[in-house]
Amino acid sequence: MLPLHTRATITGTPGRPILKVIELTEFLRCRYKPSECALWYDGSDVLQRSRALTDMDWGAIVSPNAISPPLSCARCTVAAPAVPNVIAPGDVIRITERNHLVSILFRRKARTNSLLVTERCNSFCVMCSQPPVEHDDSYRVSELLDVIQLIDPELSVLGLTGGEPTLLGANLVRLLSCLKLELARTRLHVLTNGRRFSDSEFAEQIAAVGHEQVVWAVPLYSDAPEIHDYVVQRRGAFDETLQGLLNLARLNQRIEIRMVLQKATVPRLPQLAHFIARNLTFVDHVAWMGLEPMGFARPNWTDLWLDPADYVGKLKDAVHRLYEMRMATSIYNVPLCALPTELRPFARQSISDWKNSYLPECGGCSLRSDCCGFFSSAERKHLPRSVRPIPSTETSLSITGGAARG
After folding, report:
1. Are residues 164 and 215 in the same domain?
2. Residue 112: how many CB atoms within 10 A of its CB?
3. I want to staple 336 with a disulfide (CB 3.0 to 4.6 A). Which of 35, 155, 317, 371 is the partner?
4. Tens digits of per-residue pLDDT, 374-385?
5. Both 205 and 350 in a single domain?
6. Residues 117, 120: Cα–Cα separation, whole Å
7. CA 44, 47, 50, 52 torsion: positive or negative?
């Protein structure tokens, strides 16, 4: 696990706080200006030998070790990050010189990347891993617009998350328009409760951006309105969510349904799957998700947590019902050893790199490279009781095969 922040020795002030970390060979063939870049300096004497390079207006120079770059080459130098390997060429970083902090906003080598667009939310989910903060954080938009222009255009998938992204209103239109321009081939995975899409006019404004690679990931926690409303702690949320889904479908938007596995939602898993298969056939994907022990989930853990062993029967019924209806479905955040063999082909490596870890027991597991592992925030009380290495005799089913189509 690599964190998203590290202390470092920072000298001077960067020309701008958001910069692309870049090696010289890449810079010579890229589209970026020197002022947008933090030049990667590994101690070679190329900077000293080239007057043209030293005269460029670099945003900063970054050294992975204690070697001091030539100060004349930049207004700011970043050296010796406290966490080794946390910064690498290709990353997009924010430099905060006053407290010697470097934040990684995009990591080229990460399996997944996401942009936090707001901390505000109009729901108050009982297990929310990112509890909402009610303050004006619209300042994020201008920073995000800078970040987007520095992300590798070849990136396959980028997440947008919150809080609730749709609360940005017109600013969400701005972000999507910028993403369409700068990252036209990148699939956008937007985590949203979907409630604001019940407003047809707003849904139409979003769809009018015309970004063809957007997937709206919307939670639907039950087929019973009272259960869904309880989970999100908002009366009427079920009706708003359904209307939002219908509006998105009418506008030919791609949709993923998400459901978090917990005490309130597990009893009606088969009924929810049946409801989706009968009424929401337009969705592209359905994800069944294990709990993350962060945010509100921690103080509410005893009221939320069910061991996977206690719900795999209902989960199996729900997954197979959708599969038989030829609907793509996956299981997220549940380790393979906690699932019966027939469900393992539906499991995905879903936990982001920066909060992903494995246990000592995983060392001898024949399926470790295919497993999502665990949230690094998890303590023993947050883990399934069936954690164990899987022997090679249990690997007859393909983990990455065609179980989930779409």
Report:
1. yes
2. 16
3. 371
4. 999 999 899 999
5. yes
6. 9
7. positive
Residue found under tokens 């095969």 = 401
Residue for token digits 């853990």?
301
Model-wide pTM > 0.85: yes
Domain boundary among 106, 125, 143: 106
The verdict on 238 and 91 lying in the same domain is no
The edge-to-edge listing of strands for the beta sheet with 60-63 is 5-7, 101-106, 92-96, 18-22, 37-40, 60-63, 76-79, 9-12
| Span 234-271, pLDDT tens digits | 999 999 999 999 999 999 999 999 999 999 999 999 99
Cα separation, 367 vs 352, in Å, equals 18
- Which domain, by its residues, includes 35? 5-106
Cβ atoms 228, 276 nearer than 8 A: no
CA angle 338, 339, 340 (to 5 degrees): 130
- Report yes or no on 147 lying in a domain: yes
Q: Which residues pair with 115 in a beta bridge?
A: 160
Q: How confident is the model over 161-176, as pLDDT tens digits?
A: 999 999 999 999 999 9
**118 with 168: CB under 8 angstroms?**
yes
238 SS3 class: helix
Average pLDDT, rounded, for the chain? 92
> Do residue 90 and residue 151 come from a single domain?
no
